[in-house]
Amino acid sequence: MYADEETVRRILQDTGDTWAVVGLSNNRSRAAYGVAEVLRRFGKRVVPVHPKSDPVHGEQGYASLADIPFPVDVVDVFVNSELAGGVADEAVAAGAKAVWFQLGVVDEEAYARTRAAGLAMVMDRCPAIEIPRLAPRS
Q1: CA dihedral 75, 23, 105, 39 (to 10 degrees)
Q2: Could you tell me if 46 and 59 are in contact, meaning their C-beta atoms sit under 8 angstroms apart?
């Protein structure tokens, strides 16, 4: 486990509502597209980060985190583990508050660097699974 329940809850509920989703494109068959829909349904602003920088879900896309001209609260990473550490480093440089590595994305050195930089981090979990579980029930 690469995050305790309190860290997961804090990122999803308290860290902020602007999420940059690295690897998000208009390809509806990719997991990033469906996760972005769930995040939006729970009130998150989802900013696509993909080399094509196409708009997704009505939000302008950007080729990199450094290209986003406004603050990002959470960076959600949908790239393979070999590239994820570089994205985590970019998230730190961009001033993000948290980094979330998706299911199957694991880089323990990046996790340690990101935590040492003071960011909250979750690794090898999916916010689309966690956020409904943590949502208040009426």
Answers
A1: 50
A2: yes
